[in-house]
Amino acid sequence: MALNRTSATFTPYRFDLNIYRGCEHKCQYCYAVYSHKYLEDADFFDNIYYKDGVVEALDRQLSTKPLQGKLIGIGTVCDSYQPLEKQLGLTRKCLEVIANHKNPIYISTKSPLIERDVDILNQLSCQVPVSISVSITTLNEKLAKKLEPNVVSPKRRFETLKFLKESTKALVGVHLMPVIPFLTDDDENLEGIIKLAQEYHLDHVIMDPLNLYGETKKHFFTFIKQNFPQLEQDFKALYSSSRSLNAYRMQLRHKLAKIKEKYGLKNKYIADFLPKTVKAKQISFFD
To answer: What is the mean pLDDT of residues 80-91?
Structure first.
């Protein structure tokens, strides 16, 4: 089966399509590192798996049981446009299937490789709702290279956003996530990203703070100890209890709301553009 139904209520999509398992981007905060445990493989960042026959399975699934306008999330766990996609082209082939069935989609990526598929994305977005988000955590090039070693620069990612906005009818915006305490949550960085989003006439900036659980928490704390040892105790204190983390979330939410109000940025959510009979619950990330 290509599509998996999701029961999460904080996302706008009801089904997800994840073609790859593992990710070459090597983001230090990646929440999906736990998933290789099921494969008995500890190397999430270098051993990349893909779903054999995913294109044919997707076509069968959409043909035998149409989703009736329900949203498909693409690359919601592992990026569908990571380097291996350039070789295999599975994401493009899946998009061709989805376009044939005229199903709305929600894509998240960090890669400019998505520009390759602008023809299909434009075709589909002229017929049904399409949302595309590019993840950007910081405008600081040096910090970005530490946090996301194999991802193109934030500047290049904004160029991708501009291109997609000008070349398709999709809702195009920024996933400002995760916002990382002590590293990317300063006013200058947050305001800089929102200001650029407004200047490029993007449709949304969706934000969420860093969540740390299980394998991700272990990996990220090791990264902090090696690269930012002066912040190790601050991170441990903040993530030691839900009370301290909830207080941080509220402060961040207030800060972001003020910045977005300053630039007149009001999010356009894909849920608002879906047919009313199948309208998804609006995403609950910070407005």
So the answer is: 96
pLDDT tens string 162-219? 999 999 999 999 999 999 999 999 999 999 999 999 999 999 999 999 999 888 999 9
What secondary structure does DSSP assign to 126-184, as a single string? TTS-EEEEEE---S-HHHHHHHSTTS--HHHHHHHHHHHHHH-SSEEEEEEEEEPTTTT
Please compute Rg for the chain using Cα positions.
Answer: 19
Q: What are the tokens at 39?
A: 């494969």
d(CA 221, CA 228): 10
3-state secondary structure of 281: coil
Using alpha carbons, select from 153, 27, 179, 182 the residue that is nearest to residue 191. Answer: 179
Query: Which residue, among 126, 114, 93, 213, has the nearest Cα to 156 in the 3D structure?
Result: 114
Going by C-alpha positions, the residue among 182, 176, 181, 210 that lies closest to residue 196 is 176
Any domain includes 283: no
Determine the average pLDDT of the residues in 152-166: 98
Domain region containing 135: 4-278
Query: Could you report how far apart the first and last alpha carbons of the chain are, in Å?
Result: 34
Look up the CATH number of the domain holding residue 39: 3.20.20.70
pLDDT value at residue 169: 97
What gap in Å lies between CA 213 and CA 3, rounded to an integer?
A: 25
- Report the range of poorest mean pLDDT among 151-160, 166-175, 265-274: 265-274
The total number of structural domains in the chain stands at: 1
What is the reported pTM? Answer: 0.92
Here the tokens at position 137 are 């955590």
